[in-house]
């Protein structure tokens, strides 16, 4: 789980956030504007490819993508088929 | 027909049992019930004190009841003021105050609890219609010179002074576009139109009114869902959508992230885009995805609605750049060069100006004098602020903005409005915003070196809609200024390349 969080953090840090923002596992991402509706889709694509899961259209939302913690929890639940 | 509400009366006579509106929650209504319900809600408005010529603002997610309220407001001879439900409460309050509206329609679950307390709220009618409530305001010393039964809506857009400007549109301004767009985009009683644009974005005029004029059905997406291209792609199949009117950015995202190969989108035959320049590459991808479609590029500022159009001939290579086309039948376009008007003829280039039935007269809360050019016969021409060029075929080509306003995700953004919002932070002593490589870049000086980017973002998030939040923040010691102490934007642009 912590590997997964670190993979997600690295992606957000390098591909989405500005260099001078440091992102921790509980940094608000969508409500703070670090991730907008467009970068959310980049993130979803990355998560789908990296963790071999598939988002349903309605699952691309703030509830699942708000922090690295919530993202990891969502990915884990998808992987376990819950 | 001279008023918008007559559209429904007419269609209800011809197609009473056609479905008129369906929403994301699955509610639906046919034309006959729509007409009956509009009258009922309009009576309720009158019973609780709404009078003709008044303004009623909306902070409502789009669903059947919201549109019913909107149409009932028009039926009551009032005008509607749509407010972005996703914009911060401070900006919503600013629009309400600037508009001096009589009342506000809202859902308690989706407005900030402080909103009504920050306004001169006189009384609230809870659950006026379903979960929609209505608040009345009591403005001191308010005499409304604008009050008119002819006014249909006031659309607020970004203003360079830092305060949104309200564009007043009358029924007679909107009807020519509605009639024309219905015909040219092949809307019929069989059409199914997806409504992505929120009500405060003028693209929604087509979705709602042009569709209802045709006897087809408009499918409503709430604001949050309307930002999710993956969901929209799925709904194109689920609702068998035939018409879509949205921004090039949204079309690009649907193709890129919508998993279009998973869905049957073969009903989609009319694709209309507006709000920003369509890149050739994006259009090529869109045409490859939906090869049987008719493609239309619409152009026009909120002040005039759509004034030019271009239909793409998909059998030919795409013209680069894609023209905004020729004037609509109700509009007249000319080119302003060094304060002289010229006809739209090949190889001219200058500022596009327009007049005609669709053009507004005035802003609710700002002077409109400087936005018009008066010709020698006294005709008022709206100066679009857009630089254009006419190609060899007489088609108008969009070149860019003349002033400091840019288009982002189809929305107008005054760069100075963002800079003003940043300057309201104590630690920010000076700020300037530029638009470079499709990104908003904010430069600021922070004399005490103690504010973080996250704090600035949070502050701006309280003041501005998401599409106005800069993509990049650059802290500098001092903003470059020209000799007359104006910010040197060229210099700022060059700083980015370093």
Kindly report the average pLDDT value of chain A.
89
CATH topology of the largest domain in chain B: Rossmann fold
CATH level 3 topology of chain A: Non-ribosomal Peptide Synthetase Peptidyl Carrier Protein, Chain A
What is the radius of gyration of chain B? 23 Å
The count of domains of chain B is 3
Structure description:
The complex is a heterodimer of chains A (82) and B (498). Chain A has 82 residues and is mostly helical. Chain A has one domain (2-16, 24-79): Non-ribosomal Peptide Synthetase Peptidyl Carrier Protein, Chain A. Chain A contains four helices and no strands. The radius of gyration of chain A is 12 Å and the shape is globular. The mean pLDDT of chain A is 89. With 498 residues, chain B is α/β, with parallel strands linked by helices. Chain B folds into three domains: 5-227, ANL, N-terminal domain (Rossmann fold, 3-Layer(aba) Sandwich); 300-401, Roll (Luciferase, domain 3), CATH 2.30.38.10; 408-497, GMP Synthetase, Chain A, domain 3 (2-Layer Sandwich). Helices cover 27% and strands 29% of the residues of chain B. Chain B is built from twelve helices and 27 strands. In chain B, strand 14 (294-299) and strand 15 (308-312) form a beta hairpin. Chain B is globular. Classes of the chains: A mainly alpha (82), B alpha/beta (498).
What attributes does this structure have?
heterodimer, A: 82 residues, mainly alpha, Non-ribosomal Peptide Synthetase Peptidyl Carrier Protein, Chain A, 4 helices, B: alpha/beta, Rossmann fold, 3 domains, 9-stranded mixed β-sheet, 12 helices, 27% helix
